[in-house]
Amino acid sequence: MSAIAFAIPGDIDLPTGGYGYDRRLLAEWRAMGIPAQHVALPGSFPFPTQDDLATTGRAILSQPYDDVLLIDGLAYGAFPEGIAAGLAGRVVALVHHPLGLETGHAPETAKALLAREAAALRYARAVVTTSPATKRLLASDFGVPEARIAIALPGVDPAPRATGSAEDQPLHLLAVGSVVPRKGYRVLVEALSGLRGRDWRLTIVGATDRAPETTRDLIVAIAAADLGGRIDLLGAIPDAALAEAYARADLFVMPSLFEGYGMVLTEALARGLPILCTTGGAAAETAPDDAALKVAPGDATALAKALASLIDAPARRRAMADAAWAAADALPRWRDTAAIVAGVCLPGFGQKGD
Q: Given a cut of 90, is residue 136 above it in pLDDT?
């Protein structure tokens, strides 16, 4: 059987959804006996230097020719067309979400990234993406034929149901995700600034070093809203501490402006948490309607109204929590995800007892 050479830029151990997805694929393939290896690429993507592109080329071309090149979209979407063309027919591209749709890019930068990714994807043998919404986007805006796109929803691990905060404690709101512009935390702070009269506390868990200016702005916004005593910005924390944060939560909040899938939403579902999220990108489809209240991304007024309605309605939160817990049974597992991606990379996988 051919092997999978999984090329991933940067530090695979970073606590982000995309890297978490990549790590789990590699771990599941090891457990399944599927030959696969991690090919480390420079961390400068999606804005590689010429030296980094040369290093990338050497790393990829050093792989056996009959290996399948699975390349994370953070790198592949930024490949110059000449490099992508030179790998035509050998690459399976993994697209978490289009690079040009990352919030915070200047318009000309976003336009250039979108054009470069569209050009690179023309040369991929197949594309794996993480949601039906992203598949539709790649077909409609990037010209990728639907027949070449496979969906491998992120898996989720079974988890105990959240117990929530104690009765004499403020309602515990939880948000999880790196502090980057796309996550919309400034909008959440603006929404909460008008809800001081209600009894709540917010914990934000996620790396604070990915976009330092965004983190500084968020800290300033929290202070300016006089919410420093009610919002805890924890940064990245160990898995055990994150599990404890989910267990103590009463309401999960995701104010993202755009999501390619929204893995934290299924993690919240797995713990039976009611959800308040936006409709940005695939998030509208990831969370079931009976378990989640959804608002337009970037609308602080709508977010505040939704927050107030849920804070004031414990019976509604309980009903949403029950719906979330029921939905958890149908969530995909990581072994299923890994099998789908392996099947795209290695046609015939699983057909002869592989």
A: yes
